[in-house]
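A student in our group prepared the protein record below, which I am reviewing. I have pasted the whole thing underneath without changing anything:
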Amino acid sequence: MAWPVSSWHNPGPGGSRNRFASGILPGGERLRQGWTLLLDFLLPHACPLCRCRVEAPFAPCPDCRKGLPPQPDTLCLRCGGPTVGPEQGCGQCLGNPMAPDAFHCAFDYADPVRGLIHGFKYGDHGEWAAGLGDLCWARTGAALAWEEPDALVPMPLHYVRLVQRRYNQSALLAGVLARYLDRPMVTAALRRVRRTTPQAGLNARQRRLNMQGAFVARQSLVAGRSLLLVDDVVTTGATMAAAVRALKQAGAARVAVVCLARAVPGGIHSSASEGDEHG
């Protein structure tokens, strides 16, 4: 069957500038490249952290990359739950068929990545998707390639939040990873049908109840498929768990999760970041 693929959010190697250049210069690759070079000369790429000039679009410079936080090493490699070390399954997911089948994360949710994600989501910096996606791939690419998913599914936003923000940051990130994996991004596979209240201040049971019925998966698009669910940040984990459950209840054969950052439970930013859960 043919996948209804959303390619609008799949930036090429040059990000939004290449789409813009291709759109206004329909005549030939040499003209397109010339226009891109002119834009790069007039508007050079800058590191989003220190503002120095960089070659890659919207990517941290080599010096700033050295200060990026490490990958979390006290998380379950299946569900992303807290553990004393990297483990393949924990008390929260072993024996639970609705848990994720694998969990991949590029960074701890700590500065400066935390500031980059905040600007990406709330600062109208959708163009940062290319650089952040490249960083995510650099950390998780080998594991994601091993997953061999049939398709990537971005974590959806409720339509009210999507109108307010004007783009879904997870879809932009998924588009970059889809390009690396050469797999389709299927935005219609999962919908957010209920807007939930913020998770901050809720206990574990309240968070689960808050997320009940928030997502609906399209069975015709997910049944029997191996899927990679893409999110920018996993904080409490309640949103991720509800989305995975919806996909599996619709018949998905396997659901792995990848995120740019995971807030370590009990860490300095774990409570403050709960407001970043999708609404």
